[in-house]
Specification:
Layout lengths: L29 H13 L3 H12 L7 H16 L3 E10 L3 E13 L2 E4 L2 E3 L10 E7 L5 H5 L9 E3 L19 H8 L15 H20 L3 E4 L42 E4 L1 H12 L4 E12 L4 E9 L10 E7 L9 H20 L7 E7 L7 H10 L1 E3 L4 H8 L6 E3 L6 E6 L7 E5 L7 H8 L9 E3 L8 H5 L5 E6 L4 H5 L12 H20 L29 H5 L4 E4 L2 E4 H4 L8 E2 L9
Parallel strand pairs: 5-6, 6-7, 7-8, 11-12, 11-15, 15-18, 16-17
Antiparallel strand pairs: 1-10, 2-3, 2-9, 4-8, 5-9, 10-12, 13-14, 16-18, 19-20, 19-21
Helix pairs in contact: 1-14, 2-8, 8-14
């Protein structure tokens, strides 16, 4: 894979006021919750929704035709269920759409010719017809070894990564949160002060310079196709994300607005991710001196007629004349990657949010506040749709510029410039960690809400959904709201096989969905939205926005930021899209997603 860049983002918990006793103003309404449970469990539309969204519409890469179809269909479906003010709402410029039209890869090793199981990265260019070439294993580790490859890259098909060991096959693929894990989360303490990131050592700087030179050679000489083996999955599953741009020299200031999809993006090389077992075999053959050739035929189509990104918005209007202008939101991201059909990431979350509103509407309940849904796009490229909605309607950090965000990211206290709707916003509830059932909720550093949320979860004790943790979680759309000082929350979910099998992979398909989990999550989200909408007062807010909520930078694209060596040698673990991983898992294939340093999360003794 090409030069990897990543940025280590810390999210710091704010100081919070002592817990308040809200009494009946924050209580549950037993009759209403009973209606919600009855509708959600006995007349659910969740499976019909997710089957259509994934099987019929299919993958929903941001600004692709599939994503645009999903915007229109979700709007129409929400209207059909009785929601008001439904719209496909522009959030800002994203860039070009992209769609795979044709792909095949065949490999010849010695006397054998076989299909090469692999998948193109999103926004990879076409090969302009079939390309047949020798396969080169580009394993240069120093200047002397790099010299041996000079003059050999033009027109070549290049393997970029070393052989990757497959995972321990005796470990279970799917798991649920254990009682011990949930208890640890429940007893977590607030995060400590942020730890400054060390300056890169001279050795790290030298490694950065070498990696830049090594990658630049691929572009300078004109490699035909580059291939890596992804990370974190095996057994025939392929994890596929976006193509990478040509590298910037070390020390080049980051350009957060430049993405591989940008209308002015520089030309890159066609890029594939291979099934790891297929990839490893080619590496071993080349090491043994067996000549390997490959034919790759990749045709894609670009869409440049409309560069804007769009969210789907709809609502149940509030019934209380004094409170109807206040808004409770639920949401999830509608976009997906392209190698699967976007079922667990995040058709599941989108389905739950849609079903939550349908349940409330179908139950005949009349929330005092307006309950609104946001189905976001551009989440996979940096929470862009949610951030665009927040900036347009609720508030921005400073003047909304990169410079203002960077000032806050550097340790400054962010200034939130509020829009009028900011003061009338009640809460946002998000779901984005796969098909797994909700087991509780992250307080996102706001201890004042523990008693309230525990009471709201009480009806779901038999579902083992009762955990409330002070911890933060990162990598998904609730952060856009938290960044400007608004109550934004992500639910705790059972992992099932989210990261081990389906997250951003060819196996992110509707067969991986658990029906009962989807139903239960929909009921819990509906109950939280309804309870919030019925309170006499809005939920209490944190004392101040998180100092580093400014990780939500305009045009966020991590591929362009810091060299992989800073990530690889940092010695830290990370959370990606809410999934906690160790730096060693990601190595040189760190995706363009939000990384959260767990040191900034809450911790347990």
């Amino acid at each position: 894979m090409l030069r990897r860049k990543s940025i280590v983002i810390a999210i710091f918990a704010s100081l919070v006021a002592p817990t308040l006793a809200f009494g009946q103003t924050a209580g549950t309404a037993p009759d209403a919750v009973a209606k919600i449970m009855d509708e959600g469990m006995n007349r659910s539309q969740a499976m019909a929704t997710i089957r259509y969204l994934t099987d019929v519409i299919g993958p929903r890469l941001t600004n692709s035709p599939g994503q645009r179809r999903a915007n229109q269909w979700t709007k129409q479906q929400l209207e059909k269920w009785g929601m008001k003010n439904a719209k496909v709402d522009p959030w800002g410029e994203f860039g070009r759409g992209w769609e795979l039209k044709r792909f095949s890869a065949m490999v010849t090793a010695g006397e054998q010719t076989t299909a090469f199981r692999s998948y193109p990265k999103a926004w990879s260019p076409s090969t302009n017809g079939p390309v047949t070439s020798d396969v080169i294993y580009y394993d240069a580790g120093n200047e002397a070894e790099l010299e041996k490859f000079k003059g050999k890259m033009k027109g070549a098909i290049v393997l970029l990564a070393p052989e990757r060991p497959v995972s321990d096959i005796f470990k279970p693929t799917a798991t649920r949160q254990t009682d011990e894990e949930l208890a640890k989360m429940e007893n977590a303490k607030p995060a400590g002060p942020p730890q400054p990131q060390p300056e890169p050592t001279e050795q790290q700087k030298a490694a950065q310079a070498f990696n830049y030179k090594k990658t630049k050679m691929l572009f300078d000489e004109g490699a035909a196709v580059v291939i890596d083996s992804g990370f974190g999955v095996d057994g025939g599953t392929i994890r596929v994300m976006g193509a990478n741009l040509p590298p910037n020299p070390p020390g080049t200031p980051p350009n957060f607005s430049l993405r591989v999809s940008s209308k002015n993006a520089p030309t890159t090389i066609p890029q594939l991710v291979a099934e790891v077992e297929q990839y490893n075999r080619l590496v071993r053959l080349i090491k043994q001196g067996v000549p390997v050739k490959m034919t790759v035929d990749l045709q894609v189509q670009w869409y440049e007629d409309d560069l804007q990104g769009y969210n789907t918005i709809a609502e149940i209007p509030g019934s209380d004349p004094a409170l109807k202008d206040e808004v409770v939101m639920v949401g999830a991201h509608l976009d997906s990657w392209h190698a699967g059909t976007g079922a667990t990431d995040n058709g599941a979350g989108s389905t739950v949010a849609m079903e939550a509103l349908r349940i409330i509407q179908a139950s005949g309940l009349k929330p005092r506040r307006t309950i609104r849904i946001g189905l976001w796009t551009g989440e996979e490229q940096g929470l862009l749709g949610a951030r665009g909605y927040v900036a347009k309607n609720l508030g921005v950090i400073g003047d909304g510029s990169d410079a203002a965000a960077f000032a806050a990211f550097g340790g400054g206290k962010p200034t939130i410039n509020k829009k009028p709707a900011h003061d009338k916003f009640a809460a946002y509830y998000n779901l984005d960690n796969g098909t797994g059932q909700i087991r509780g909720i992250y307080l996102q550093g706001n201890e004042q809400l523990r008693t309230i949320f525990k009471e709201w979860l009480a009806p779901f004790k038999d579902w083992n959904a009762s955990t409330v943790t002070i911890s933060n979680t990162g990598g998904t759309d609730h952060l856009a709201f938290d960044a400007v000082g608004l109550p934004g929350f992500q639910f705790i979910q059972d992992p099932i096989e989210y990261f081990t099998r389906s997250w951003h992979t060819t196996q992110d398909v509707s067969d991986r969905i658990l029906e009962q989990d989807l139903k239960r999550s929909s009921v819990i989200m509906a109950a939280f939205a309804y309870n919030t909408a019925m309170m006499d007062e809005r939920l209490p807010r944190k004392g101040s926005p998180s100092a580093l909520s400014a990780q939500l930078l305009p045009g966020f694209d991590l591929r362009r930021e810091l060299d992989e060596i800073e990530f690889r040698n940092s010695g830290l673990g990370f959370s990606v899209c809410g999934h906690e991983v160790d730096a060693g898992e990601l190595k040189g294939n760190f995706p363009a997603l939000l990384a959260v340093n767990p040191a900034s999360h809450s911790h347990s003794d």
